[in-house]
Amino acid sequence: ADAVYATEELEETAKLLLPLVDAALELARLQPAIFQPHFRNITDILLGWYIEPQQTSAVRAKCEDAMKGLHSFWLGALHFSLHEMLIEFLRDAEVYTKEARAFPEPPNGRPPGDEDEEAPADLLYKASLLLRASRLSFASLAIPHNSPQFADVAKFADQALEFVDGSLRQLELGKCWDEGSDIVAQAFPFIVNLHPFLGPAKPEVQEKWLSLLLHCLAQAPRLRTTAVRDAVRAARDLVEGTPAEAVSQLAERLIGPESPLLALRLHSSANVAEAVLGLYRSLLAPRSVPSLTAAFTIVTAEMRSSLGVLKQLSGASEDGDESTPSSNSK
User: Fold this and answer.
1) I need a labelling partner for 151 at 20 to 30 A (CA). Which of 4, 157, 165, 260 fits?
2) Torsion on CA atoms 238, 242, 246, 252, rounded to nearest 10
3) Measured between alpha carbons, how far is 47 from 106 in angstroms, rounded to an integer?
4) What is the DSSP secondary-structure string of 113-157?
């Protein structure tokens, strides 16, 4: 147990953390009964090191591997792990995003004379790491859908979705979009992990993730390309996990004339455009379109929207300098 207590007392010497974590994990493997009482403390310490904005990549990777490696302890006290630990991670993430949004100074500024005040960039980065830690820890549990504890996991999933929603809704003011992109990139894959426990057929569940997706895609020009791509890929997974009879309604919202997804078809990133194409395929798959009439309605609306885009581009070409082919190329 000495390595456990040493880890608890460790403060500034990050290089000592790596071998101490290895020792603690070995103790957990060989003497789980001795390690169990210290599981919460060790996890809190690992998380504290993990979300430190200036942390080294080696220490962060070690903390991440350790948290995932302790999945047997997470499973051994599943209710406590979900409703006390992971929910606390998500609650803290939402608090960080709210503090960043309320920050009165410029995005990377600090109040004069208050060096301890964290800048929005640091707060949002911590929030993104908390979301990542929650997502990876929950995924590592690999809880089967026929688990006798399904109801308890479903209750956690409902609460988790509310906190993820709260975190994403704070990204409206345009502060620190790089860090905001990190939050988006972690949030939607996490929703995919939660989705089977949320009740995919419930209209309120569909409305929640769909409105969140449209909210974030509307900010796509300010988000990093990888975050946009990951959000669209997650949307495809969510569509494929939704009962067929409900997908046509999603399609009408996602590829309707007011959807921000339409603009992403012409995104400069091939990865984003490919992700959008994959989402379209899922939305218009035979299982997802209940009738030829519905298919005809969706496709013709899409064609009208595409024709409008082509007309706009054509008008821009005619108004531009014909000696430069850039507008025609676009």
Assistant:
1) 165
2) 20
3) 28
4) T-TTSPPHHHHHHHHHHHHHHHHHHHHHH---TT-TTHHHHHHHH
Burial 38-56 (b: 16+ CB within 10 A, else e): bbeebbebbbebbbbeebe
Ordered alpha helix ranges (H), 31-77? 32-35, 39-50, 57-69, 71-76
Query: In whole angstroms, what separates CA 285 from the centre of its chain?
Result: 26
Q: Say which residues have a Cβ less than 8 Å from residue 321's Cβ, sequence separation at least 6.
A: none
Rounded to the nearest 10 degrees, what angle do helices 225-240 and 177-198 cross at? 10
Q: What is the DSSP letter of 81?
A: I
Cα–Cα dist 249/239, whole Å: 11
Whether the model pTM is above 0.70: yes
Q: What is the DSSP string of 180-239?
A: HHHHHHHHHHHHHHHHHHH-TT-HHHHHHHHHHHHHHHTTGGGS-HHHHHHHHHHHHHHH
Note the pLDDT tens digit of each residue in 29-62: 899 898 888 888 888 888 888 888 878 788 888 8
Based on the number of CB atoms within 10 Å of its own CB, is 182 exposed (0-12), middle (13-18) or buried (19 or more)? buried
69 close to 138: Cβ distance less than 8 angstroms: no
Please name the residue that has the structure tokens 């419930």: 202
Q: Two tokens at 285?
A: 């798959």
pLDDT, tens only, 223-265: 899 999 999 999 999 998 888 878 877 887 887 778 888 888 8
Structure tokens at 320: 């531009």
pLDDT at 76 over 90: no
